[in-house]
Amino acid sequence: MLCPVCQLEARKFGKDRDGNQRFQCKPCKKTFSDRPAKPLGEMRLPMEKATQVLRLIVEGNSIRASMRITGVDRTTIINLLVLVGERCERLLETRIKAMPVADVQCDEVWGFVGMKQKTKVRNHPGTEHVGDAYCFTAIERNTKLLLTWHLGTRTAFDAEFFMEKLAYATTGRFQMTTDGFTSYPKAVTDNFTEVDFAILVKQYATKADEGRYSPGEVTGTVKLPCCGAPNPDLICISHVERHNLTIRMQNRRMTRLTNAFSKKWENHQAAFALQFAYYNFCRKHLTIKMTPAMKAGIEDHVWTLEELIEKTSTLN
Question: N or C, fewer C-beta in 10 Å, the chain?
Fold first, then answer.
């Protein structure tokens, strides 16, 4: 064991109160303990049990289902989710920045926290962090890497903030495609000086007699170049829309027509951060036969969940 002060070999010097080996450096007389790492901080949950809980969550199980399967208390599971989720959010911001990209697609997927927006407007006007919760995502078409994300509402402010995050995550000139949300053009031009930007607007047929939740039939698309020189053949948002399905299938809070919704904004955000970190670093993409992080060249192997927990625990 090396001394943390002078970096010289230290000798064993008994045990501390917790039974950890103590050491003493002969030249500087510094004493210190060899304390085991605590990837879960002050949580007493065993690492094996924590990994089992998180694996269930990232595979689409709810908090209560995970509780019934593992026997871990619901509050402990929520605390674990928030702890690891916040760390995963920092991991994505740290590892994915100034990425060279070629073709980026952006979209937003709807969810809600606490209650539907119409209930908030009717019974709880002015209450923050409840109601509509849109998750903005941006993926690279070729590597499938999720470049950045933002949880907010479908407003010009959140579109601006999302594009600011995307500018931080990317570098160089590339093509970008979004849907027809009217706040995107200004947000893009405010944050990018060199980008080939286009909008894809889908046209839907009216289906008034086929049920409230039946999706509209797409009858056509309109491609609208906005700035730069976007390649018409690459104006597409199909890949990011397919990723929206992954979000809904792998995140129980986003499953439609169920009662498994988020009650707190912080938990909702932590669940997204955990899912996206797992998607980028731990889950092999069937199309590219590797993780998006490996395809993008920022990792050389598939992470395990244990590795994800350990690596995120070292971030400040």
Answer: C
Q: What is the per-residue pLDDT across 107-143, written as a single tens digit (0 to 9) for each?
A: 999 999 999 999 999 999 989 999 999 999 999 999 9
**Are 7 and 101 found together in one domain?**
no
Note whether 85 and 16 are same-domain residues: no
Strand partners, 203: 220
Asked if residues 20 and 33 have their Cβ atoms less than 8 Å apart, the reply is: yes
Q: What is the pTM of this model?
A: 0.87
Q: Classify the phi-psi angles of 41: left when phi > 0, otherwise alpha if psi is within -120 to 50, otherwise beta.
A: left
| Domain match, 19 and 168 both | no
Total number of domains in the chain? 2
Q: What is the DSSP string of 222-259?
A: EEEEEES---GGG---HHHHHHHHHHHHH-GGG-TTSS
